[in-house]
Design a protein that fits this description.
Helix content is 25%, strand content 35%. The protein is of the alpha+beta class. The chain has a domain at 45-85. Strands 1, 2, 3, 4, 5 and 6 form a 6-stranded mixed β-sheet that branches. 20% of the residues are buried. The mean pLDDT is 94.
């Protein structure tokens, strides 16, 4: 199983780091909420190395959200981008 470390960052971002790379997701502040891209949106915007890892990232993010009492929603307009090392 892929180990993913989630860390909130200023500017309404949730950083997801793994050995394969770093992805950034939308995390609204004030009233915390993660908007996770739908599988279709993921396939359109994920880097090649992450295309087949939607479920792993979603499951990991869901666990992080649950542990931090932050709601998560899968949405068609959720954004995500790769942060280059």
């Amino acid at each position: 199983m892929l180990k993913i470390e989630f860390t909130p960052r200023w500017k309404e971002e949730l950083v997801a780091k793994s050995q394969e790379g770093t992805l950034i997701f939308e995390l609204t502040m004030g009233k915390d909420h993660v908007y996770f891209p739908s599988h279709i949106k993921w396939m359109d915007s994920a880097p090649e190395w992450a295309k087949d890892k939607w479920k792993e990232y979603f499951d990991g993010c869901s666990k992080w959200c649950s542990a931090n009492n932050i709601p998560i929603s899968v949405v068609e307009n959720g954004w995500m981008y790769e942060e280059k090392r």
